[in-house]
Amino acid sequence: MKMKIMKSAVLSAAFASVITLTSGSVFAQEAKTLDQLLDFVKQGQTTEARENRAREAKFKSAKNQQAKLLAEAKQMRANEEARSTRLEANFEQNELTVAEKQGQLKERLGTLTELFGHLTSTAGDLRSNFTSSLVSAQYPGREEFLDALIAKMSGAEQLPSIEEIERLWYELQREMTESGKVVSFSADVAKPGGEKESRSVVRVGTFNIISDEGKYLQYIAETDTLSELARQPGSPYNDWASELVNATGGTVAFGADPTGPTGGSFLAALINSPTMNERFEQGGTIGKAIALVGAFAFALAIWRLLVLTLMNSKVRAQMKSGKANINNPLGRVLKVHEENPTMDTETLELKLSEAIMKEVPKIELGLNLLKIIAAVAPLMGLLGTVTGMIITFQAITIFGAGDPKAMAGGISGALVTTVLGLLVAIPTVLLHTVTNGQAKKVIHVLDEQSTGLIAEHTESQLGK
């Protein structure tokens, strides 16, 4: 029994070995006898040996190929090293040649080197000035000559000619001369709408250019064109520009901007300054309400001044007349005495006081309203200011405080209502004072005349 078990184990091990050895190239078959198992083992060894020989041949071929490539690489490295040595020698020789040639060039140029340096610097500065100069609008193309001259002197291959040097001096002198002239010439002008027209323009030195319509123009160097400013500085500058265009000689006032030929800071400040109408619009609804209240106050004050002035003239005429006329307050008060000549003094005094009291409201009509408007107008302006500041702070909360101009514009708009309130309040106070003085003058005359009547009536009563 034990022998059978051992025999089975040996057969199993041999069978596994046969499968392992022949798995790469020989089909694994089930061995039925030991002789078949032995044949399978022999066949596996033969196949394995053949594959190993093929593998070795392949390895040898690859090794020979790698050796060939290595030899080629070594040969290439040697060739490149030799080439590098030749190039280094050639480079050193070229450096010596360049240094020698530079020495020869410097020796031959002599003091011209410094001259060409000054010419290059002058041409560069002049080229920068020509880019924004208003003279270029009248004499275009000057930059091209300077570009060519700068390129020639920077290349160090050609020397500038005497004619080119003289032209550089000429252009520099012409720029200085033209900066002090007021000249007229024709040019294409672009309107704010985009259309172009050939118009006569006047150049005031290198400061400003105006059209024959008295409009300020802007020179655009990139396109070499003149364009009319969309927003003009307004009066009196446009009026002065029109006078300059139409002038034939003599001295004419003109608003020139010395800070920039294309609309510098002064001209920009004038252009960006809001007009009276724009400032009024900044006040918003509250500003319009203040303006309406102010207009009503002025109309009321003027009306009362006219009425009181006419009333004063009638009262003065009544004082000169011996008969009471009911077309004025004094005449109506005196009419009471004429109608009651025999009345006792106490009753007459009461009657006259009653007549004066009836006239006072008519005389002082509208004065209290003027006083109220003078007090309310600044408060309305303050209300507008607070409202505008709230809106400004809300904008700062949303957009931040990175733009001081936006903040200044909002605060300026908020303060417009305060200005409007003061503009209404101050004249209203003055008008109220004047109107109240006229009214007090009439009332004083009434009191004076009534007191005199009472005194005369008392004397006549005592004389009886």
Structure description:
This protein folds into four domains: 2-79; 110-179; 181-271, no CATH class; 282-463. The protein contains 14 helices and five strands. It has helices at 2-22, 34-109, 112-132, 135-138, 142-155, 162-178, 237-246, 265-272, 276-282, 284-320, 329-339, 345-363, 367-399, 404-463; strands at residues 182-190, 196-204, 208-211, 216-220, 225-228. Strands 1-2-3-4-5 form a five-stranded mixed β-barrel. Strand 3 and strand 4 form a beta hairpin. The radius of gyration is 56 Å and the shape is elongated. The protein starts with a helix and ends with a helix.
Short description:
The chain is α+β, with helices and mostly antiparallel strands.
Which regions are unreliable across 5 or more consecutive residues at pLDDT < 50?
A: 1-28
In quaternary terms, these chains amount to single chain
The amount of beta strand, in percent, is 5-15%
Number of helices: 14
Radius of gyration, rounded? Answer: 56 Å
What is the average per-residue confidence, as pLDDT, rounded to a whole number? 80
Q: How many β-strand runs?
A: 5
Number of domains: 4
Helix/strand order, N-terminal first: HHHHHHEEEEEHHHHHHHH
Which percent bin holds the helix content? over 70%
Biggest beta-sheet profile: 5 strands, mixed, barrel
Pfam families: MotA_ExbB
Family: Belongs to the exbB/tolQ family.
Main location: membrane
GO cellular component, one term: plasma membrane
